[in-house]
Amino acid sequence: MTTQGKAKIRITHAEPLGQGARLLRLERADGAALGFAGGQYVIINTGVTLPGGKLAKRAYSLLSSDAEQRAVEIAVKRIGAGPGSNVLSDIAVGGELEWSGPWGKLRLPDGFSGRALVVATDTGITAALGIARGAAAAGAERLDLLWLVESDAYFVSERFVRDRLPAAAHLSIASGFPPVGHPERPARAAAIAGELFAAGPCDAILCAGDGAVLYPLRDRLVSLGAPEGGVLLESFFNNPLKKSA
């Protein structure tokens, strides 16, 4: 299904999502299908040259249903003076950029039929939405989505998420979650996700968001009985593997 490569993309629709967030609808300039699966992402070249001479390229999860392959949606949060988020927060409808992808293995396997637990922190909710709205999730016996977020004003709203989730998905929101960098985040995530995990056997566990939370969470879920190697992670930020590389 997936066809990876570089392509020009065009902004066909844009709308504000609240404080510092924006929804963009994108299409390939050549009209071709993207060929993505729920949970995957693309890397967008902002065209901005960083001080070291590299181009600022940023990854964005596709929160659309993968039933539609010629137009996709991403949600962008403006982050300070960040070149990626500012370019996409300001670009006009009709503007074009280059992207590559789709990429990523944070996805349910084709023909999935068991129980899935999806955990998202912060902006990781976009990947979680893509997973829940993907064709592979349609056959799930149960899909539990846990969103750990500081507040309803942090990124997209609870209503935005609920409006886009399939009726069969069960959403739990831990609003008031400690802010990024807070030392209590990993322990709080482990306690909340551990309760959901204990509700019954999980055939797939997928996590997206803050790596400083997700890696300890994976260790905790494995200690509770999740198969080692069976918890898939995608760090949107604070990836300890990149720091140690």
Description of the structure:
The chain has 245 residues and is of the alpha/beta class. It has helices at 83-90, 125-133, 158-164, 185-197, 211-223, 240-244, and strands at 5-18, 21-28, 41-49, 55-61, 72-77, 96-103, 115-121, 142-149, 169-175, 204-210, 231-237. It has two domains: 5-103, Elongation Factor Tu (Ef-tu), domain 3 (Beta Barrel); 115-244, Rossmann fold (3-Layer(aba) Sandwich). The chain contains six helices and eleven strands. The radius of gyration is 17 Å and the shape is globular.
Q: Features of this protein?
A:
alpha/beta; Elongation Factor Tu (Ef-tu), domain 3; Rossmann fold; five-stranded parallel β-sheet; 6 helices; 11 strands; globular
CATH class of the largest domain: Alpha Beta
Computed CA radius of gyration, to the nearest angstrom: 17 Å
Q: In what range is the share of β-strand residues?
A: 35-45%
Q: Give the rounded overall mean pLDDT.
A: 92
Strand order within the widest sheet? 4-3-6-1-2-5
Helix and strand sequence: EEEEEHEEHEHEHEHEH
Number of helices: 6
Overall tally of domains: 2
Which outline best applies? globular
SS content category? alpha/beta
CATH architecture of the largest domain: 3-Layer(aba) Sandwich
Report on the biggest sheet: 6 strands, antiparallel
Fold-level CATH name of the largest domain: Rossmann fold
Q: What distance separates the N and C termini?
A: 32 Å
How many strands?
11
In helices, the fraction of residues equals: 10-25%
Secondary structure elements and pairings:
Blueprint: E1 5-18, E2 21-28, E3 41-49, E4 55-61, E5 72-77, H1 83-90, E6 96-103, E7 115-121, H2 125-133, E8 142-149, H3 158-164, E9 169-175, H4 185-197, E10 204-210, H5 211-223, E11 231-237, H6 240-244
Parallel strand pairs: 7-8, 7-10, 8-9, 10-11
Antiparallel strand pairs: 1-2, 1-6, 2-5, 3-4, 3-6
